[in-house]
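User: Before I run my own analysis I want an independent prediction to cross-check against. Here's the chain; please return only the structure tokens and, at the end, one sentence I can use as a sanity check.
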Amino acid sequence: MKKYQFPTDFLWGGATAANQIEGGFYEGNKGLNIADVLPGGKERYDILLNPGFDFEIHQDQYYPNHEAIDFYHRYKEDIALFAEMGFKAFRMSIAWTRIFPNGDELEANEEGLAFYDRVFDELHKHGIEPVVTISHYEMPLHLVKEYGGWRNRQVVTFFERYVREIFNRYKDKVKYWMTFNEINSSLLMPIQGLGFSIQKEEDKYQPTFQAYHHQFVASAIAVKACHEIIPDSKIGCMILFAPVYSFDSNPENVNYALQEERLFNYFCGDVQVRGEYPAFIKRYFKEHNIQLDIQDGDLEVLKEGTVDYIGFSYYMSRTDKLGKAEGESSQGNIIGGIKNPFLKASDWGWEIDPIGLRISLNKLYDRYEKPLFVVENGLGAYDKVEEDGSINDDYRIDYLREHIKAMGEAIEDGVELIGYTSWGCIDMVSMSTGEFSKRYGYIYVDKHDDGSGTLARKKKKSFFWYKDVIAANGGKL
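Assistant: Structure tokens:
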């Protein structure tokens, strides 16, 4: 097998999100966030993609994020397991509602700040670098209900107060930051990223892109503040990247794939990396009658607040064509498209395309010429605990091996790659469906879709495989 050369300081590790692992629903004076009102099961998927969600907790529903996998109380145990694997980095997020429970307070919550102090100290004790996402699908519910989410310009002020608080508090503990998780995903699911539910399909364009403008300004303000408060820090954006393939060589389909890729994959990145709205978006705004309220100084802020690197998630590619017929859509693929006959799919219908990761890395580096960081990539699958207690997830090992090879090839292509934090280093609540059975981790957690389980941790076969990969710096796959 070919051996790949990864940089000597390459950040191998794993990735999580506060709302999917922490639990501690009401503890430490935490406030309610969007994830706290999303029920588990397939109903969640429908809520995310369809209009009219009420953002309320209903007594007849089960809310898996309330306990999640109880990282809030078990973080020392979990971090010790990450250290045993040899993690160089751990990507996590800070729950905004632990720092400002409602989001609009003037004073921060000391209990929440102290919790993350303890987590960061524990990581550093084991030589693990925290990579922190500032906002990861967990906007304070109060800002959703009282202000209308990111549609409201006031939220920029609240976000700046939040980021300055955490930068000042953790300036000696965190050097790698990202602003908004998978920021472009709000084009499909505004609930989690932008904090509102579209009420009518035809009304989605104006509020979505106005909210985006506010988020871009907030991100740029955060970048400037981070550089000011933590001069040796690196702060990036975070994009859900899925290369779009044309179904065939028909020029109409090739052009359709190009336009789809520019809007979904590059629009948000262009603003955050280049510091300005891309030329192609002007036509899109005109065709959809979008008129942004851009205040004096906003464009200068965007230009001054460009990111240091591009973090991105990669799970799948997308194949598409103009005017696809009903029934042609790829099942289970939240980003749409049609079935690619050359690719296999996961248990949830996500098409598996390791070469697509190499393509993505090259496309991003060619466009931006800034360091890249693969901060999410992994396989959600049903895992079986054998009678002897073992979990033989060779399918996950195969998936990860091929994607790491793709990164190695991209590095040889000339791509500057900071690190790799695979998604779900420990089993957790699924973002899209709220299921525990959709497992990504190297560490099995005894927790199930009905809420039962002991929360006991167990090492899978992939745990030991990834440990060897890290020890050999990618030289042993």
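Sanity check: The radius of gyration is 21 Å.
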